[in-house]
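User: For my dataset I need records formatted as: sequence, then structure tokens, nothing else. Please produce one.
Assistant:
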Amino acid sequence: MARLQNKVAIVTGGASGFGEGIARRFAEEGAKIVVADLNLKGAERVAGDIGKAAVAVQTDVSQRAEIERMVATAMDAFGRVDVMVNNAGYTHRNGDMLKVEEDTFDLITAVNMKAIYYSTLAVAPIMESQGGGSIITTASTAGLRPRPGLTWYNASKGWAITATKSMAVELAPKNIRVNALCPVAGETGMLAQFMGEDTPELRARFRASIPLGRLSTPLDIANAALWLASDEAAFITGVALEVDGGRCI
């Protein structure tokens, strides 16, 4: 399969979880990958497994200069940027919204919101000069159907979904498609934060709220991202695609 042949994709948060799944799946379909993550060793591991079609870069997505360096790395290595995947995310632990510290709130907004602004400033002019591109953000079912205990995280993902739709309208004349993925919680390092703690009982209760009866996997999210990034979705923009086993029904 080569649905992303000759395309270059940047994936933030690419060292683990959904981001790692997306990076590996895109590479299987022919894309060249920039694996960006604060965890450089993890990013190097993923890029090393992919091979010469991938490079790793340490990136703090809350910092504009680091986003710009990430995009410059893509251009230096591969000469173009076709797909920008804003996947890096951060959350507070499930609990009382009044007890979330301000520095935690600020980091949520920086990683989940402002990073999208920074990356768009960096890649949109490149994509326009190339004749088009695709921007994909990992949002969340929390932005569509918020639940108690994750209020500030929920709000940041609602922002990401609204930004996606607004960006889609404004960038459409430049042939830049903008979409969001809305996963239900999955088998990633953030699961314990979402649930408050990770116990078999809590997992069972959470799985019971998902009609298809399981948590999401990195491959579930990667396959959805692959479709949105591919030419098969050439007429798809501004969607918040639920990848949730029916959770939002």
